[in-house]
């Protein structure tokens, strides 16, 4: 009070600076709006502190918030609130400062009325050793919390389209909340194959150390093939629900060129599934040859549509490491039409044949649609179902069509009748069967070769990993 008020803040600042010079602490300011950009670190810190169990508050009052679509309650910090957080044995003191901004008469962009700053105090001895890791930890945790709290998104691209979200200008994807109900529980397929796929996904999601140690880009490719209505799209939704990933549904026919494709793929986030459905129809799979390039002109640019090589460049060329934790899923009804380059090892790590309803798959559908468990039906009916289901060559989609909106026993009888009809029809013409057999043979031949390559690669990897 001995200073006039206009001097007071200056003197306080000065005192603080002197204090800092001689103290054993370092101070860092993290401002909410940094120049013209929003500071991502600020919101990450806020999210981390407000949900961290290790943070201890000395504040008497905190404000509670629940965001739209979010199930978690977070608390906010008021002015001068102080929190202590510990990480790897180091203590971090966070102080939240809010000051009023002088009213602005004119501004190009909206600036909040308040200036909000986190000030971090950390022992000088800790700045080198743990600070970077601590900040990285905060950023990662914030991303994780956001993903778990928010609805996940389904993104799609359209020609000349893009984000209608004004806060992300130039963002080439359109987003809708992703709410597909399909899970691995509801997915009807062979249980052994199912758990194989689930284990593969889990290994992928927890595989950061492996991918780092082996120097491989952290990504994985799945090729889903099989006739329509066998659950390829449902499988993708189940994968996303299982891993809590976003989905980018890439519509290749809406992509003008390879450079556009690159832009799209660069704007996908980590922990996402990038899907290209009906890959055999959506890209000219044979135009891998490049035009001779002129100086200053990229060969593949503006040449009319993306090419397979452009796509492969992203799935496993140099560009594939831009962003990690990506899963690529390609689906097709005609696996024999695919370019062998696409089937080569390292591109599509797992080939999943989605086929007609098998007996184990049928049991899953009966349970999900009618609540029928093992032993609910008489042995006679079960045997009859088992005997006819494979020969009927009925897709899970067609089975569910029969089971839906019917009373339990009527549904089962109806299904049995339908399957028997189909079996009779199949006995007549074998065209479909022949076709499928041919495709499968073709694929197996490719796969055999791929398996060999893969085995070699695994051996190489293991050598490196050890
Ligand atoms: N394996 C399955 N398990 C459970 N439901 C399934 C399965 N396959 C199909 N269905 C049902 O059939 C519907 C259509 O299946 P889906 O869209 O997944 O087939 P698809 O293989 O992607 O077909 P397409 O090749 O035509 O894209 C699903 O919404 C689901 O209700
Ligand atoms: Mg589909």
UniProtKB/TrEMBL annotation:
UniProt region (Disordered), positions on chain: 149-168, 421-466
Catalytic activity: ATP + H2O = ADP + phosphate + H(+)
GO molecular function, one term: ATP binding
Domain AAA+ ATPase intervals: 218-358
Pfam families cross-referenced by the UniProt entry: AAA, AAA_assoc, AAA_lid_At3g28540
Sequence similarity: Belongs to the AAA ATPase family. BCS1 subfamily.
Protein name (Swiss-Prot/TrEMBL): AAA+ ATPase domain-containing protein
């Amino acid at each position: 009070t001995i200073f006039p008020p206009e001097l007071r803040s200056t003197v306080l600042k000065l005192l603080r600076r002197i204090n800092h010079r001689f103290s054993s602490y370092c101070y860092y300011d993290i401002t909410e709006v940094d120049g013209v950009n929003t500071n991502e670190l600020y919101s990450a810190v806020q999210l981390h502190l407000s949900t961290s169990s290790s943070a201890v508050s000395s504040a008497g009052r905190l404000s509670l918030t629940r965001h739209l679509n979010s199930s978690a309650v977070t608390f906010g910090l008021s002015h001068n609130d102080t929190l202590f957080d510990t990480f790897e044995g180091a203590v971090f003191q966070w102080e939240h400062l809010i000051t009023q901004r002088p009213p602005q008469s004119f501004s190009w962009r909206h600036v909040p009325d308040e200036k909000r700053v986190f000030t971090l105090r950390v022992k000088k001895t800790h700045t080198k050793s743990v600070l970077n890791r601590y900040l990285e930890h905060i950023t990662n945790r914030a991303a994780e919390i956001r993903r778990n709290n928010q609805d996940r998104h389904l993104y799609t691209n359209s020609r000349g389209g893009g984000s209608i979200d004004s806060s992300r200008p130039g963002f080439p994807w359109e987003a809708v909340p992703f709410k597909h109900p399909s899970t691995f529980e509801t997915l009807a397929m062979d249980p052994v194959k199912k758990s194989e796929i689930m284990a593969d996904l889990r290994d992928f999601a927890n595989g950061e150390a492996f991918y780092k140690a082996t120097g491989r880009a952290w990504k994985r490719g799945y090729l889903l093939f099989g006739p329509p209505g066998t659950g390829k799209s449902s499988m993708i939704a189940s994968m996303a629900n299982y891993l809590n990933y976003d989905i980018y549904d890439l519509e290749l026919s809406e992509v003008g060129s390879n450079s556009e494709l690159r832009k799209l793929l660069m704007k996908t986030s980590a922990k996402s599934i990038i899907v290209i459905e009906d890959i055999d129809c959506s890209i000219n799979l044979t135009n891998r040859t490049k035009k001779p390039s002129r100086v200053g002109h990229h060969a593949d640019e503006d040449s009319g549509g993306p090419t397979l090589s452009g796509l492969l460049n992203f799935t496993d060329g140099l560009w594939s490491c831009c962003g990690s934790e990506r899963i690529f899923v390609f689906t097709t009804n005609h696996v024999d039409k695919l370019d062998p380059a696409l089937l080569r090892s390292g591109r599509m790590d797992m080939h999943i044949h989605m086929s007609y309803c098998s007996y184990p798959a049928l049991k899953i559908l009966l349970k999900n649609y009618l609540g029928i468990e093992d032993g609910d039906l008489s042995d006679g009916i079960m045997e009859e179902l088992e005997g006819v289901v494979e020969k009927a060559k009925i897709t899970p989609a067609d089975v569910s069509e029969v089971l839906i909106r019917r009373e339990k026993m009527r549904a089962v009888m109806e299904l049995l009748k339908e399957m028997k009809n189909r079996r009779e029809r199949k006995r007549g013409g074998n065209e479909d069967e022949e076709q499928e057999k041919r495709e499968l043979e073709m694929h197996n031949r490719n796969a055999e070769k791929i398996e060999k390559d893969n085995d070699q690669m695994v051996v190489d990897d293991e050598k490196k990993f050890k």
